[in-house]
Design brief:
- By secondary structure, the chain is an all-alpha fold.
- The mean pLDDT is about 85.
């Protein structure tokens, strides 16, 4: 169900993920001695945050087109 939700808003989720990689990857590479557990935890949080652009798109679309059936 979560993946289906992301799939319905795939363009927004993809754009957000590109921005995440653009900003987070250099920061992760700059920190040399990060613990593996912390790196995995960061990756899990970043993947979980993919719900943000999907939810935002749903709210904005519902606000702009209130009579449109979803």
């Amino acid at each position: 169900k979560w993946l289906a939700w992301l799939g319905r808003h795939s363009l927004q989720v993809f754009s957000y993920s590109v921005c995440l990689v653009y900003f987070v990857l250099p920061a992760k590479m700059h920190v040399n001695n990060i613990h593996v557990f912390a790196e995995v935890l960061l990756d899990i949080v970043l993947v979980a945050s993919l719900i943000l652009p999907a939810t935002l798109h749903k709210l904005v679309t519902a606000h702009l087109y209130p009579l449109r059936k979803r």
